[in-house]
Design a protein that fits this description.
single chain, mainly alpha, 6 helices, elongated, membrane, transmembrane, transmembrane helix
Length: 154
């Protein structure tokens, strides 16, 4: 203690160091928050753009009666794809959204909205359930970043 009293520059250095540490920590926390918000925004924008590109074709699901039709009807937006391909793209989109939600990069409110839309398609159109069950059989569910078969649509 006597050393500190006789050397006030050490005390000043310690105080300045302490405040520098606090300020650095505060800026770091703010930068992390900003980076997280930017990532959320980027994911939100990307996923919504991808959904928008699939939406017209997904609206055709109510007219499709069986798997053969699904594999024959061409996409509105991409003549090289069938509605079956579009549905697989949709499953990939859903699984990516779920993956980022589990990593806490997508807020609960946004996930709840997306999940509600996913369940609408899954519950409204039997062909969606048929194709999904075919996709996840055996170990196919792992290609969708899932640990269990029925994890995504439950």
């Amino acid at each position: 203690m006597e050393y500190l009293i006789n050397n006030p520059q050490v005390v000043v250095t310690l105080i300045i160091g302490f405040f520098t540490l606090i300020i650095t920590w505060w800026f770091n926390q703010n930068n992390l928050k900003i980076a997280k918000q930017k990532m959320e925004k980027d994911l939100f924008k990307e996923f919504n753009e991808r959904y928008d590109s699939l939406n017209d074709d997904l609206n055709k699901l109510d007219t499709i009666k069986n798997l053969e039709e699904l594999k024959e009807i061409k996409s509105i937006n991409n003549a090289n794809k069938t509605i079956h391909n579009v549905l697989i793209d949709y499953f990939n989109l859903c699984s990516e959204q779920y993956y980022w939600y589990k990593k806490k990069r997508i807020p609960q409110q946004i996930w709840d909205s997306w999940y509600s839309g996913m369940m609408f398609y899954y519950n409204s159109f039997p062909i969606v359930r048929i194709v999904w069950q075919d996709e996840i059989k055996n170990n196919g569910y792992k290609s969708y970043y899932l640990k269990e078969k029925d994890e995504l649509f439950k």
